[in-house]
Structures
1.
Amino acid sequence: MAQQSKNSPRHVKSFRAGAAVAAYRIVKHGADSEHAVHAAAAADASFGVTIPGVSPNLGALAVAEEIIDVATEGIAHVEYGGAVALGAPLTSDAQGRAVTAAAGNRIIGIAQAAGALGEIGAVQIAPGVL
């Protein structure tokens, strides 16, 4: 397991799941500003990471229309979709997992822990474009 930084989101907002949404995943807006779905590409305008345990419906998976909580600022735990180095800019893979970004990608933030595929690491949330 990747060494984790403390999960310390400074801002958490509730959304409705626009489809099935897993814990520790990067999200983007769904059909409207009240819905969130997994980000599915490095070009997606990601804005946060799902927080398990805060919402009663997001233990491991929330289904469409359930309420989920999303960290939009601070440090949040995120599932890695591949090898990640400490300090790497992170974007989303096709399942909303964090992977190292390339030039021109939209990013969710900066890795606060190194890790590998399937591990839970940490990201300092700072959406932007690399």
2.
Amino acid sequence: MCLFRWLLFCDMFSHIDANVSELQQRKRVAYRAELTDNIYVSVTTPFRCVNIRKFYRPHGQRDMKATRQGLALELGEWFQMADIIKAINQNHIFDN
């Protein structure tokens, strides 16, 4: 299951990275995508970070609410993590 989530995350990596670039250019950004099981990755203008967080739906309500389970990467941390993700994929996951 972990490898499946990793592959899904890597699949949306270019979308996340593109939205981070737009955020750096001071453009309006409102990106949110579900990774799996109510875990969402978001990049939004007011929060200048990459937010990876679990959400839940309160009983009887329509809108999802964020939990404390997750992390928010500042843009510098995102770029460091992006380099690590590329290295992991090149050296371990997609090594032929």
3.
Amino acid sequence: MQINQDLALKRAILSLSKEEKDQLLLNLLSKDQLLLTQLGNELLENEADLCQKVNQIKEAIREMNSHVKQCLAYDHFYTPSRFMMDIRALSGLINEHALLTKHKVSEVDLRLFLLESVIAGETKVFFVCRTKNNEKLLRYFVGRIKSLLGIYFKLNKDAQLEFAKRLDVILKFAYQSAVRSDMTNFNLPKHI
């Protein structure tokens, strides 16, 4: 039930003393960890804290790249499925960051950074042709691009300009890889 739907309850809450409202607010916040974390981010953290969080996630992506490179060099059983699991774990970190900070520019930056890491280096081999083994990975990759574009187009024009070249590289790669047909099916742009 929304508070606006029960006007009597809304009036009763508004008529509480300041101390009672404060106590009620603190009790409610203690029951919702997500809301508490979001409020903490909004009230207590600054731009430097945001940059530190972004850099921590980028470092986790770099570590994944190093791990993948090592696995591909020494483990002949590193599969597209394992690679997708690694990407999904990092995407989860980015989702959590976006949910807690609600900072769209850093979200787009991190999502681009993750996709750039996917198409760089040895993992390109997973995108050369479509096979039974890499089908889920290819669909997941296109889904990440589609999701990124949805967020990108909601940014202001200046922020879009900042990311346009990086996004063009990813789109160009996608249209030259095994996901070309998926990109076309979803009517995703070939360039920004």
4.
Amino acid sequence: MRVDSIAGRARAAARDLGHKGDSFSLKMLSIRAGMKTRDEHKSLTNAVGDLIKAGVLIRVERGRYAWKDLERTEPTIQEKMWRALRSARVTDVEELQELAGASEDYAREWLQMLARRKIVRRLKGGKWQMIEDQVEMPADEEKAERLRRMRRKRKEAQEAMDRAFAAIAEARIAIADMEE
């Protein structure tokens, strides 16, 4: 990214203003980035939106932003599969396993989720073809909801077991009192 571009100037100014963890306003950012015209300020506003989407800036409150220091982390398996799919356009489970390190079940389940959303379609021979390209990787909300349900049920079961153990303990105490 060119530093002399509006986006580059916005990024550099945001980093300067927020590198110590301080929040800043859009006006402060505009001044630091050297925006002079209304058009430049409007472009800066768009650049701030892009920086938020990229995860570089966070909105602290209305009109206030903070720089988010990003540590480069290894992409998730799902991100690797998404990149491989977008690059190849046609893939199969084995290729996703190899390129992304996914298990066979996970790759297959992920492709099926994409098929339900009409992003890919199944071809003959176990191949999958991308039919709708979008930049953002689709979130697997179905799986997230399934995991939330499972955690909720596990918690309910644990609470029921705790109540049962408490009742057993009370019964043992009552029996011990009767024997004395």
